[in-house]
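Ticket #4471: complex job returned nothing on first submit. Input attached below:
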Amino acid sequence: KAGVTQTPRYLIKTRGQQVTLSCSPISGHRSVSWYQQTPGQGLQFLFEYFSETQRNKGNFPGRFSGRQFSNSRSEMNVSTLELGDSALYLCASSRGVAGGRAYEQYFGPGTRLTVT
Amino acid sequence: SQKIEQNSEALNIQEGKTATLTCNYTNYSPAYLQWYRQDPGRGPVFLLLIRENEKEKRKERLKVTFDTTLKQSLFHITASQPADSATYLCALVYSSASKIIFGSGTRLSIRP
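Support reply: We reran it on our side without changes. The output follows.
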């Protein structure tokens, strides 16, 4: 069974630009969550999608948005990039129902975003 | 706001010994508590999950305990090996609020 895949793996952008990251969950998983990981703040929850609907959102500004398609693939967009957005962005998929996090999450390898 | 503390940023122990990592939290007890392992440059890998009404869970050389009175979870690796060296993260899951909070992690090093 293929794992969670994320593209691209590495990205360098300039302040003010926007970026779109992609995540393909494990086949059969309907929940996709996005996280930001930095050395200072650790792993922070961005949002979760289940059946194309955003079910939960973390404390991030509106510049961070996402969506999920009917095949459960998800994209995350960050507009007007800031230097502080440099981080590892991780996507995780789960077979659990929305809000029920008893199911373990399977993480992808992440996208390393550098903003200059 | 809810806070999680993982005992120390780094832990170094001798191969063969038992490694014990601590996850403490404040305020409300979560419905579930998960432990993950993360290697450099990779995403976290799920290890174990324990529910609030469970005291202990085991999987091979791994053991997790959950004490809602102390607001603490302990994660043990018995007969530790250098291959167990990684960062270990605990995560608190509040299913009623669909919320998950990760600890900052403990970097475990097992020396031969």
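The interface with chain A takes residues 31-32, 34, 36, 41-46, 49, 51, 89, 93, 95, 98-105 of chain B (CB under 8 Å). Closing as resolved unless it happens again.
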